[in-house]
């Protein structure tokens, strides 16, 4: 019962309460990043495997610009990382939009961190068990 209903209910209630409290901070960070990224947006999404290997889009704050060289290739990360982006990464604030993934039911507060989809075929049978539960914003080791 806990793993199928209660954990999801606790995640939802906690995240909803946290979002009610921190929404002004999220709004300020969104606006700040929008201008720091020169209009390239404040959010970054990336596909990750979730529960049962189902692919979902994880949401994070965008800490780099989309600047490209003369060939149209993205510049190296260190040249695209903004000053505010460095601060946001160092304080882990870039992870806060994942709270919306928890509300949607794609993630949980605590669970295995979602890795990239290209790792799916590389898992052993034991390692693949990580997809039996929802991925988490934070893992057991951090808790």
End-to-end C-alpha gap:
22 Å
Biggest β-sheet, characterized?
A: 2 strands, antiparallel
The secondary structure category is alpha+beta
**Roughly what percent helix?**
25-40%
Count of helices? 4
Query: Oligomeric state of the chains?
Result: single chain
Strand order of the largest sheet: 1-2
Instruction: Tell me the overall shape.
Output: globular
- Rg from Cα: 17 Å
Unreliable residue runs = none
The mean pLDDT is 90
Number of strands: 4
Portion in strands:
5-15%
Q: Strand-and-helix sequence, N→C?
A: HEEHHHEE
Quick recap:
This protein has 143 residues and is of the alpha+beta class. The chain is built from four helices and four strands. The strands form two sheets. It has a two-stranded antiparallel ribbon with strand order 1-2.
Structure characterization notes:
- The protein has helices at 2-36, 77-80, 83-90, 98-104; strands at residues 43-49, 55-61, 108-110, 136-138.
- The chain is globular.
- Helices cover 38% and strands 14% of the residues.
- It contains four helices and four strands, in the order αββαααββ.
- With 143 residues, it is α+β, with helices and mostly antiparallel strands.
- A two-stranded antiparallel sheet has the order 1-2. The chain has a two-stranded parallel sheet with strand order 3-4.
- The two termini are 22 Å apart.
Can you tag this structure with a few keywords?
143 residues; alpha+beta; two-stranded antiparallel sheet; two-stranded parallel ribbon; 38% helix; globular
């Amino acid at each position: 019962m806990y793993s199928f209903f209660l954990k999801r209910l606790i995640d939802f209630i906690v995240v909803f309460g946290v979002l009610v409290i921190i929404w002004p901070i999220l709004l300020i960070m969104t606006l700040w990043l929008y201008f720091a990224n020169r209009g390239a947006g404040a959010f970054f999404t990336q596909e990750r495997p979730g529960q049962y290997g189902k692919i979902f889009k994880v949401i994070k704050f965008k800490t780099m610009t989309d600047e490209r060289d003369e060939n149209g290739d993205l510049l190296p990360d260190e040249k695209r990382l903004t000053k505010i982006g460095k601060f946001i990464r160092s304080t882990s604030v870039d992870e806060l939009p994942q709270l919306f993934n928890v509300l949607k039911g794609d993630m949980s507060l605590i669970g295995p961190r979602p890795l990239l989809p290209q790792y799916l075929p590389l898992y052993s049978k034991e390692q693949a068990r990580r997809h039996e539960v929802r991925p988490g914003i934070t893992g057991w080791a951090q808790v």
